[in-house]
Write a structure and sequence with these properties.
- This is tRNA CCA-pyrophosphorylase.
- With 186 residues, this protein is an alpha+beta fold.
- Helix content is 33%, strand content 20%.
- The protein is built from seven helices and nine strands, in the order ββααβαβββααβαββα.
- The strands form three sheets. The protein has a five-stranded mixed β-sheet with strand order 4-3-5-6-7, with helices on one face.
- Helix 3 links the parallel strand 3 and strand 4.
- The radius of gyration is 19 Å and the shape is globular.
Length: 186
């Protein structure tokens, strides 16, 4: 079994190193990314959209050149376990999602996705075994067209020095930097 040119075991080790654990969402995400890549033409430059903040963005960043840092990955928190890869120039692409109608044969995956069991009640080994067995069988793919404004890079604009803290910040944020207006620190 291969996931984007890695054996399943290699991919699990990559996940553990990057994510900190063999999280089910990143494991399933590997199958999702692999499926999406196979459904887009070779040689195109593509962007990614992830519809959840949890785990799935890590699979995209591990297996594609799309990252939050380079702006090729947009996380749009729609609350769905789905991702899209699409051509940067035509906005044509594919969306891959966990198909809930296909989960009946996979009770551990279903319990994990729908939070039917608490974390302490879940068996990571059972979930991992089911994910390995299920592979892409729990996924569906659809052709999509992404709205052009989604893929546009957002420029920071001009940069200035905050008069309160002395750090560089985008002047479009206002007279002082966002941290000086509403710091996350005490």
């Amino acid at each position: 079994m291969q996931i984007a040119k890695h054996t399943f075991e290699e991919y699990l080790q990559i996940i553990k190193t990057f994510h900190g654990s063999e999280a089910p969402g990143v494991v399933i995400g590997g199958f999702m990314v692999d499926m999406a890549i196979r459904h887009i033409p070779d040689g195109i430059l593509y962007n990614a959209i992830c519809e959840t903040r949890s785990c799935l963005p890590d699979a995209i960043q591990l297996l594609t050149p799309c990252t939050i840092g380079n702006g090729w990955l947009k996380v749009i928190p729609l609350g769905r376990f789905a991702l899209t890869l699409y051509d940067k120039y035509t906005n044509e692409g594919v969306r891959v999602f966990v198909d809930t109608e296909k989960l009946e044969a996979w009770p551990e995956i279903k319990a994990w996705l729908f939070k039917l069991k608490t974390k302490s009640e879940q068996s990571p080994e059972s979930i991992a075994r089911e994910i390995a067995e299920a592979g892409e069988s729990i996924l569906s793919v659809q052709r999509i067209h992404v709205r052009p404004e989604i893929g546009k890079k957002i420029s920071k604009g001009k940069i200035g020095v905050c008069p309160q803290c002395g750090e560089a910040y985008p002047l479009s944020d206002g007279k002082v930097c966002l941290a000086c207006r509403e710091s996350p620190y005490i």
